[in-house]
Write a structure and sequence with these properties.
By secondary structure, the protein is α+β, with helices and mostly antiparallel strands. 29% of the residues lie in helices and 26% in strands.
Length: 249
């Protein structure tokens, strides 16, 4: 069932979104060549605690890390560990926090020290596709309008959208209804209504869309070994358009 938030709940979602974005920006600035993904996760944990929040991911379905850190061909759900970040790596950071019982969920991909022109273009297109989707996130439209906008932006630039993982409703839980695909799947699509809060999150591959999971049971990688990028905002649906709850202050 799709949850419509009241004014009190929306205010709580705004605060959760503000904290999630603050932590994401701090972690993004922290990423440098030479550090390990565990260094990044521990830094994120400290910043989340400093905000009086807690990780929405740690322990969720037994996920063992505070944030998701996915490097280069890793699409999503990468695990923190001994892997050392190299100059030119692109690092996807997905932050979810609980603040007063509500979740803020946001992601971006950053370059470690610098990156190739193609990697930068992939990140730019992925972020642009997110905002193309957000532009369609208004009451009266359907989820498929968001999906179509993302897919058309990505594919017109020669990249591909991941099918196996999609955006979602968000509120008191990390994952609520409805699902928000980044492509048009031809299935009946829910109508967007004022008070809905959803996470729109394009996951875009430089090559083909197919992915596979590593033996750790979490890390999803591109099947062809190509780069992948990930951007995400939590948004509130209103009659006049989307309010980005995880927007930079």
């Amino acid at each position: 069932m799709i949850s419509l938030k009241n004014e009190r709940e929306i205010a709580a979602m705004r605060e959760a979104g503000r904290v999630a974005r603050l932590v994401l920006d701090e972690v993004g600035s922290f990423v440098q060549p030479g550090m390990t993904t565990l260094d990044i996760d521990q830094f994120a944990a400290e910043r989340i605690r400093k905000q009086g929040a807690r990780s929405a991911f740690l322990g969720y379905r037994r996920y063992p890390c505070n944030i998701c850190i996915s490097v280069n061909d890793e699409v999503v759900h990468g695990l923190a560990g001994k892997r050392r970040i190299l100059f030119g790596d692109i690092v996807s950071l997905d932050v979810g926090v609980y603040v007063n019982g509500f979740v803020g969920d946001t992601a971006k991909t950053v370059a470690a020290g610098g990156c190739s022109l193609e990697a930068q273009r992939l990140m730019d297109v992925t972020e642009r596709s997110l905002h193309e989707g957000i532009a369609q996130a208004k009451a009266g439209n359907r989820v498929s309008d968001i999906s179509r906008a993302v897919q058309e932006c990505v594919e017109s630039c020669g990249f591909s959208v991941v099918r196996e993982f999609v955006g979602h409703g968000v509120g008191r839980s990390v994952h609520e209804e409805p699902q928000v695909p980044n492509y048009v799947d031809g299935k009946p699509s829910p109508k967007l209504r004022s008070g809905m809060t959803i996470a729109i999150e394009p996951m875009v591959n430089a090559g083909r869309p197919q992915v596979e999971m590593l033996n750790d049971g979490w890390t999803v990688v591109t099947k062809d070994g190509g780069l992948s990028a990930h951007f995400e905002h939590t948004v509130l649906i209103t009659s006049s358009g989307a309010e980005i709850l995880t927007c930079r202050a």
